[in-house]
Specification:
This protein has 211 residues and is of the alpha/beta class. The protein has three domains: 56 residues, Urease, subunit C, domain 1, CATH 2.30.40; 107 residues, no CATH class; 34 residues, no CATH class. Helices cover 30% and strands 21% of the residues. It starts with a strand and ends in a 7-residue tail after the last helix.
Length: 211
C-alpha cells in the first residue's frame, strides 16, 4: 500500500533538519521518498493521499510519563481505575498532539490490562511497574487504603518478564514530600517544609513531633 502525505513541511526528528514544502511517500511501512514538492505529481499511483493542509509532518512523539491511559489502578497510590470512556478520551488527546507511543506510569497495573487498552486504541501504550514492597507500602500509607492483594503480590520481576519497560513512578507520591496527599489526610493545607518535618518524625517514631 502506498500513502502520499502532501502539502506540509517535515520535521525529520534528527534535531537539525526542517524540510519546507516537502511531501512524504510511504510504501508498506517504509518511508520510500521525500519529494521536495508541495504536491506529489502522479499521485494517482497512491492508494491514499493525506493533505497536511500546510501543517507539520513529524515523527510519532514518545511520551515517557503519562497517567490515565490504561486499565487498572490509577495514579501511584493505586486509586480505582478510570472508565473506558475516560481512558479513550485521554488517549485521543495524546494522539491528536502527535503522541504515538506512551508509557503508562500508573502504579500497579497488570501487563494484561496494558494489552487490553492496546487492542482498542492505536496509541502504543507501554508499561512501567511499581510492584515493589516499598511502592506498595507507600501507596497504602499515602491515602490510607489497602491495595488489592492480587496487585500487592504481583512482583516487578514478573512485570518485566511480561513486558514492563521501566520502573516508575519512582519518588511519587513523595514529590514535594507528599504535600498534597498529606494535606488531604490532615484536612488542612500544609507547606512542603511542614510535610518534610512530619515525614522525618514519622520515620523516627517521634509521636510528640507529629501531634
Amino acid at each position: 500500500m502506498r500513502i502520499d502525505i502532501v502539502n506540509g513541511s517535515i520535521v525529520t526528528g534528527d534535531g537539525n533538519s526542517f524540510l519546507e514544502n516537502t511531501s512524504v511517500i510511504v510504501e508498506g511501512c517504509i518511508v520510500s521518498e521525500l519529494p521536495k514538492v508541495r504536491y506529489v505529481p502522479y499521485n494517482a499511483y497512491a492508494d491514499k493521499v493525506i493533505n497536511a493542509r500546510g501543517g507539520l509532518i513529524i515523527p510519532g512523539v514518545i511520551n515517557i510519563h503519562a497517567h490515565g491511559v490504561a486499565f487498572g489502578s490509577f495514579q501511584p497510590w493505586a486509586l480505582p481505575g478510570l472508565s473506558t470512556e475516560r481512558l479513550l478520551f485521554n488517549l485521543n488527546n495524546h494522539l491528536l498532539q502527535g503522541t504515538t507511543t506512551i508509557m503508562n506510569t500508573d502504579a500497579l497495573c497488570f501487563p494484561w490490562e496494558i494489552e487490553a487498552i492496546n487492542k482498542i486504541h492505536p496509541v502504543n501504550v507501554k508499561m512501567a511497574t511499581m510492584h515493589t514492597p516499598a511502592h506498595v507500602k507507600a501507596a497504602e500509607l499515602t491515602l490510607g487504603h489497602q491495595v488489592e492483594e492480587r496487585r500487592k503480590n504481583f512482583t516487578a520481576e514478573e512485570a518485566v518478564k511480561l513486558g514492563a519497560v521501566a520502573l516508575g513512578e519512582v519518588g511519587s507520591p513523595g514529590t514535594a514530600y507528599g504535600t498534597n496527599e498529606t494535606s488531604l489526610r490532615l484536612g488542612k493545607v500544609i507547606s512542603a517544609r511542614h510535610a518534610f518535618a512530619l515525614d522525618k518524625a514519622v520515620l523516627a517514631g517521634d509521636e510528640s513531633a507529629t501531634s
